[in-house]
Amino acid sequence: MTENPEVRYVDTGSATLDDVEIERLHEDFEIEMSRAAIAPDACVLELGYGHAHFMDWAKNRGWTVVGIEINPALHAAASSAGHDVHLGSLEDVDFPAGTAFDAVVAFDVFEHLTIAELTATLNLLHKLLAPGGAVFARFPNGGSPFGLAFMAGDITHRTALNGSAMEQLGALTGFSLELCENAARTVSGRRAKFLKRVAFKVCDLIEVAVGVLYFRGRRMPLDPDLVCVLRRQD
Fold it and tell me: Distance of alpha carbon 113 from its chain centroid, rounded?
């Protein structure tokens, strides 16, 4: 395990996945990109692509996908694999004039940024997106006690977020909050799909009960991870 001098990332995890993990990950991507309503022929920018699992999946679907990553080792690996990638932060990349992405995706990235950095990032993304373009983001659920394990489990995490915070950030940067829900609940994996579906129903009942008891009937997402879609407003 290594970290960069500013503690902006810590190298963990593996680029190698077994068949079951790949199946689960691909189901995850299918669910999330469907909810974000990203077209099959989209031109997509990924922030913090990590081991490039999403880029591999998107490229195989025929999407045009570009990535940005601050980790030099991960950048070198993705570049060697033939991906169109840039090393550095978003403000470091000089895109050609007229560049317009249909969507931006950020899996487990926004929680690593401060509010000032998030605001600056969304302002830049607004300029890079085509009219009506979307920003998809997944991050630990700052509105749930079950998100604390993920939020507190990484020393590079800076900001806890929930739907209300994302709505405010969007309003400051020219976006509307289109969707804010629990992250994809996948049934692929080593456990029986039936048992997973039963467990998800129990989670739904808990959310309803908590909403009645604490939030005047408003149901709040309580899964450890949250996903949001911000739509560019012109």
Answer: 13
Residue that is written with structure tokens 């509307």 in the block: 176
What token pair was written down for 109?
């990235």
Amino acid symbol at 208: V
pLDDT, tens only, 150-180:
999 999 999 999 999 999 999 999 999 999 9
* Residue listed under structure tokens 């920003």: 135
Q: Which ranges of 46-192 would DSSP assign to H, the alpha helix?
A: 53-60, 72-80, 115-128, 148-151, 163-173
How far from the centroid of its chain's Cα atoms is residue 55's Cα? 13
Backbone angles phi, psi at 233, to 5 degrees: -105, 135
Q: What is the DSSP string of 81-136?
A: TT-EEEES-GGG--PPTT--EEEEEEES-GGGS-HHHHHHHHHHHHHHEEEEEEEE
Q: What is d(CA 159, CA 55) in angstroms, rounded to the nearest whole number?
A: 25
pTM confidence score: 0.93
Q: Both tokens of residue 91?
A: 């403000």
Residue in the structure block whose two tokens are 């401060």: 114
pLDDT tens, 189-221? 777 899 999 999 999 999 999 999 999 999 999
Q: How many Cα atoms within 13 Å fall on the side-chain side of residue 227?
A: 21
Q: Compute the C-alpha angle 13/19/23, nearest 5°.
A: 90
Report, in angstroms and rounded to the nearest whole number, the Rg of the chain calculated over CA atoms. Answer: 18
Question: Where do we find the tokens 């739904």?
Answer: 204
Q: Is 152 exposed, middle or buried (0-12, 13-18, 19+ CB in 10 A)?
A: exposed
Q: Supply the DSSP symbol for 141.
A: B
Residue whose C-alpha is closest to residue 88's, from 47, 136, 52: 47
Angle between helices 163-173 and 115-128 (to 10 degrees): 50
